[in-house]
Specification:
about 350 residues; alpha/beta; 3-stranded mixed sheet; 9 helices; globular; binds NADPH dihydro-nicotinamide-adenine-dinucleotide phosphate
Length: about 350
């Protein structure tokens, strides 16, 4: 099957690309620069007959994908590209516009020029599910049915809120598109919480580590020696390989997941867990770690946090989730080649 994967240079997309090629599929992937394209081509020389890397510099432009979708033979689209960082000054222009226009832009282009596409999977987020007013409420349950109530009017509350709103509005726009435009494809969204695990995308340096793995880099660079920051109340996580697998299953292997939101979640974590795992498994980093008596980053207690129900997702996907320990061990090992 030929798959269009947007944002191929990203942390999560790199694992999706790896799994797609491994399974013998053909992939057209988009990145923002020739340099990033070349890094991917170099990594997959042996599969060059099944891999095309195209340049889409900015998904905020509504016509960004108009030419890409005309690549012959695409049957499935996995749209992962969306800004997940806090290096912006204008949240509307740098966060909401690319998230929302990137999503509606590709869906419009597909409807117009790629009627053979049968399924689109959009990488949404737990950010589109949560309600910030219930994060510490043990009587509140989030599920595949839940929607973040915040709107564009809330983006100045905090940088985290702005990011969450970008994901909520982008996902909402996708479901609205399918309902009103009735395209030939159906839609699946994948809504992961914090994504952890090995880095296999090309990084120019550790400074370009993706946002969800920044905390591990900070820990290994000794920045948590004095105190361990709290991970906050949004303390669910998933391994990146499991999440990539969920995209592949949703896009190519299970027709019946069409029309569903997949809330892919392995459980609760605390920042303190990273410290304990590194202490036990990587003695070479001992001098970078906080001494054992340093507190902070404890996993939230069940009575202090929201509940979640992912039964439907687990039933639909049937994936056995990787453990937090394995995820962190493999992440740390993957960072060693950057001389951490
Ligand atoms: P990355 O930052 O590694 O990947 C984001 C990708 O989107 C990159 O390839 C990036 O390109 C591309 N991108 C961002 N803005 C633009 C733009 N304006 N124009 C074109 N491309 C753009 O992060 P992740 O892999 O973690 O994120 C992938 C997806 O997963 C995102 O949709 C994110 O919201 C979602 N997600 C991530 C979670 C996590 O914990 N990691 C949790 C929940 C959802 P470049 O690097 O060149 O800027």
């Amino acid at each position: 099957t030929k798959v269009l994967l947007t944002g191929g240079s990203g942390f999560i997309a790199a694992h999706i690309l790896e799994q797609l090629l491994e399974k013998g599929h053909s992939v057209v992937t988009t990145v923002r620069s020739e340099e990033k394209a070349q890094a991917i081509r170099d990594a997959y020389k042996a599969q060059s007959d099944r891999l095309e890397v195209l340049i889409v510099p900015d998904i905020a432009k509504l016509d960004a994908f108009d030419e890409v979708v005309k690549t012959p033979g695409i049957e499935v689209v996995l749209h992962t590209a969306s800004p997940f960082h806090f290096k912006w000054s204008d949240p509307q222009k740098e966060l909401l516009d690319p998230a929302i226009n990137g999503t509606t832009g590709i869906l419009n282009a597909l409807k117009k020029s790629a009627p053979q596409v049968r399924r689109v999977v959009v990488t949404s987020s737990f950010a589109a599910i949560i309600d910030e007013s219930h994060l510490s409420d043990p009587n509140h349950t989030f599920s595949e049915e839940s929607w973040n109530p915040d709107t564009a009017a809330d983006i100045h509350r905090s940088p985290a809120t702005a990011y969450r709103v970008s994901k909520k509005l982008a996902e909402k726009a996708a479901w609205d598109f399918v309902e009103t435009e009735k395209p030939n494809f159906d839609l699946v969204t994948v809504n992961p919480p914090l994504v952890v695990g090995p880095v296999i995308n090309h990084l120019a340096s550790l400074d370009s580590i993706n946002t969800s793995n920044e905390r591990a880099v900070n820990l290994l660079q000794g920045k948590w020696r004095e105190s361990i920051p709290s991970q906050g109340p949004v303390a669910l996580w998933i391994d990146v390989r499991d999440l990539a697998r969920a995209h592949v299953v949703a896009g190519l292997e299970k027709p019946k997941v069409g029309g569903h939101r997949l809330f892919t979640t392995a459980g609760l974590f605390g920042n303190h867990d990273y410290v304990d795992i590194v202490r036990e498994k990587f003695p070479e980093f001992a001098d970078r770690l906080p001494p054992p008596e340093v507190k902070g980053g404890e996993r939230p207690l069940p009575e202090q946090t929201f509940k979640w129900n992912v039964e439907n997702t687990d039933k639909l996907l049937g994936i056995e989730w990787i453990s937090f320990e394995k995820s962190v061990v493999d992440l740390v090992s993957s960072l060693k080649k950057y001389g951490i």
